[in-house]
């Protein structure tokens, strides 16, 4: 029986993220919504993508939603599993097309913090996980896409720690620092899709989800969002069929797509 | 003048005093690592001892100690609990990831951290670790990413003083890592900044494998993560194995044999040794247990003491863990079925992966309490 409820914000993020993937690509997946998006893409428009994980697991047969990036679903019937160092090595060497990352805080240049919130290194409100693969992916990825929720605490003028470099201080500062890779290409949130203006490298609205005005998006942001020239596109929503696949096949347990109550 | 040129600003950022820099030296001192390896018995001898003996003999207070596997995948957690039972203290922990230090810090087992990642993914933020750092029960000695730490271990395995990396550039991690330095690629005519990562040599590593022979040749099924590199790098290597097999088994079929005997100091037969984590091919995670860990034992201030009473004091080994905390042989069968179905070594049609998430109203940690 089909549930006819429209996509909730998490489902919308998962769908929009999956739409960033083109068929045939090699996609680097982390825990949470990126995993959902990768598996959804494979079950819908991109059946020939290869998923790779930082543990070294890669190219699994499609199966259950992984409970962890180290879990068996990430290496299910894989012909070969790499070691962790080689997994990042192949990204450096040009064998990964898209990488997805989350953030605790993000600034206007797509720099990301997953270290701590509120304060500094020794005196903070919350210490978070630390980099994990976040800095590696931000440093090396050909096309990096950031994904998460949006509010002024997360989208903030000054992040409390630069775990991962997006465009550093804008302009050509990323390249000057010696980083390879394209930097962040998009940020996908519950409000819309953002890209980065090519000259200044400042975050810019690319499309907004249905019902979200630029004023609302700005209210949810702690720095000035750039606007594109002309009318702001509305992000396409998932079809009923795709939502059904998402809910029934990709994450039937609702582990990642259930809104917290 | 000290042996290594640590950046003074980085030391100041980390609040590492000059008198403390000796804590850093051993990790990157390839000369002492080489000497330690040279001085081992290189013969193929029967290295089997008990877990208690291996920990007492090879894990010393203040050692630079590794968290191996992948947080809760093929990680020798049962051995970590034994370290806590023997009350060995002052360890520096390093690992990518290094999740299990969280509960080891509260009891003085770990006092220093080389940080790459500490957490349990979607289970929730580790509040216990956050408090541990803030309240000074562990001191962060360096900040890393997964990849750069893995590259440091790999450099050691490759027998190199260090490697050049393109990670960390421009980030704040450079300000909090005394071991890495920005250097120029010597071959490019234009400026090409790279990060020099020295080879990393932990004092002691415990690696949990599927099969080992008595000499220390090891077979691993599933992701190796950093363990092949750690076995080569660490000065002392303890192997814990689900099974001990004859040497002929390794010679007749050397598929997935990834650690050679000469690196190994001790071999411990330790079935179910990855509990309360998972072991590829053998047992799944107790998922509710990890949820209870992150949502209660590590979340509520002081609750980790309750976990300690249950898991460290209340259990003497993995069999107690299984019987007292995890649901006994029924749970082991369920855990085996889940992992093998997810791996598609067993039929997965008809296998139910759903479970009731842990809540305070339902405090039993085992997965069978649906």
Describe this structure in a few short sentences.
The complex is a heterodimer of chains A (261) and B (370). Chain A is an alpha/beta fold and 261 residues long.
Description:
The complex is a heterodimer of chains A (261) and B (370). Helix content of chain A is 23%, strand content 16%. Chain A is an alpha/beta fold and 261 residues long. In chain A, the strands form 3 sheets. Chain A has a 7-stranded mixed beta sheet with strand order 2-1-3-8-9-10-11, with helices on both faces. In chain A, a hairpin with a 3-residue loop joins strand 9 and strand 10. The radius of gyration of chain A is 18 Å and the shape is globular. Chain B is α/β, with parallel strands linked by helices and 370 residues long. Helix content of chain B is 34%, strand content 16%. In chain B, the strands form 3 sheets. In chain B, strands 11-9-8-10-12 form a 5-stranded mixed beta sheet. Chain B has a 4-stranded parallel beta sheet with strand order 1-2-3-4. Chain B has a 3-stranded antiparallel beta sheet with strand order 5-7-6. In chain B, strand 1 (64-66), helix 5 and strand 2 form a beta-alpha-beta unit. In chain B, helix 8 (146-157) packs across helix 9 and helix 13 packs across helix 14. The longest helix of chain B is centred in the last third of the chain and has 16 residues, at 328-343. The model of chain B has no long low-confidence stretch (mean pLDDT 96). The chains are: A alpha/beta (261), B alpha/beta (370). The interface between A and B is large, with 59 and 66 residues.
């Amino acid at each position: 029986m089909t549930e006819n409820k429209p996509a909730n914000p998490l489902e919308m993020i998962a769908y929009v993220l999956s739409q960033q993937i083109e068929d045939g690509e090699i996609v680097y997946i982390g825990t949470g919504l990126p995993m959902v998006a990768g598996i959804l893409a494979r079950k819908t428009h991109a059946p020939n993508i290869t998923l790779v994980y930082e543990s070294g697991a890669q190219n699994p047969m499609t199966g259950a939603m992984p409970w962890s990036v180290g879990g068996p679903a990430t290496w299910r019937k894989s012909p070969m599993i790499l070691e962790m160092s080689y997994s990042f090595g192949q990204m450096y060497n040009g064998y990964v097309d898209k990488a997805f990352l989350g953030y605790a805080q993000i600034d206007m240049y797509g720099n990301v913090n997953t270290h701590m919130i509120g304060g500094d290194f020794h005196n903070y409100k919350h210490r978070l996980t630390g980099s994990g693969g976040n800095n590696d992916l931000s440093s090396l990825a050909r096309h990096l896409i950031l994904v998460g929720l949006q509010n002024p605490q997360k989208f903030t003028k000054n992040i409390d720690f630069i775990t991962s470099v997006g465009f550093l201080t804008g302009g050509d500062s990323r390249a000057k620092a010696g980083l390879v890779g394209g930097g962040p290409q998009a940020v996908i949130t519950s409000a819309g899709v953002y890209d980065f203006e090519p000259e200044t490298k400042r975050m810019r609205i690319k499309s907004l989800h249905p019902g979200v005005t630029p004023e609302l998006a700005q209210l949810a942001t702690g720095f000035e969002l750039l606007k594109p020239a002309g009318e702001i596109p509305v992000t396409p929503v998932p079809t009923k069929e795709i939502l059904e696949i998402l809910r029934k096949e990709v994450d039937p347990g609702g582990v990642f797509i259930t809104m917290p109550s | 003048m000290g042996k290594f040129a640590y950046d003074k600003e980085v030391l100041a950022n980390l609040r590492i005093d000059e008198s403390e820099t000796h804590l850093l030296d051993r990790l990157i001192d390839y000369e002492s690592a080489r000497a330690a390896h040279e001085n081992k018995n290189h013969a193929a001898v029967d290295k089997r001892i008990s877990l208690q003996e291996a920990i007492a003999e090879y894990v010393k207070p203040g050692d630079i100690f590794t968290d191996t596997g992948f947080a809760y995948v093929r990680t020798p957690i049962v051995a970590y609990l034994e370290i806590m039972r023997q009350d060995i203290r002052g360890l520096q922990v390093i690992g990518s990831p290094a999740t299990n230090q969280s509960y080891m810090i509260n009891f003085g087992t770990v006092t220093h951290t080389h940080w790459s990642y500490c957490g349990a993914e979607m289970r929730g933020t580790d509040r216990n670790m956050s408090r541990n750092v803030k309240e000074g029960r562990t001191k962060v000695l360096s900040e890393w990413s997964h990849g750069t730490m893995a590259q440091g271990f790999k450099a050691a395995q490759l027998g190199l003083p260090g490697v050049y990396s393109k990670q960390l550039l421009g980030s704040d991690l450079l300000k909090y890592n005394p071991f890495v330095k920005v250097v120029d690629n010597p071959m490019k005519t234009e400026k090409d900044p790279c990060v020099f990562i020295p080879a990393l040599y932990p004092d002691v590593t415990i690696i949990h494998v599927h099969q080992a022979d008595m000499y220390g040749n090891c077979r691993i099924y599933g992701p190796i993560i950093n363990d092949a590199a750690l076995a080569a790098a660490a000065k002392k290597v303890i192997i814990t194995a689900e099974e001990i097999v004859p040497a002929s088994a390794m010679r007749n079929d050397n598929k997935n044999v990834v650690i050679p005997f000469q690196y190994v100091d001790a071999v411990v037969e330790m079935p179910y040794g990855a509990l309360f984590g998972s072991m590829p091919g053998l047992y799944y995670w107790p998922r509710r247990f990890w949820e209870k860990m992150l949502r209660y034992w590590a979340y509520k201030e002081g609750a980790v003491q309750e976990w300690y009473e249950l898991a460290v004091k209340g259990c003497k080994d993995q069999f107690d863990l299984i019987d007292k905390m995890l649901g006994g042989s029924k749970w082991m069968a369920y855990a085996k079925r889940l992992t093998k179905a997810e791996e598609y070594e067993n039929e997965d049609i008809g296998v139910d992966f759903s479970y009731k998430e842990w809540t305070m109203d339902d405090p039993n940690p085992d997965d069978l309490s649906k």
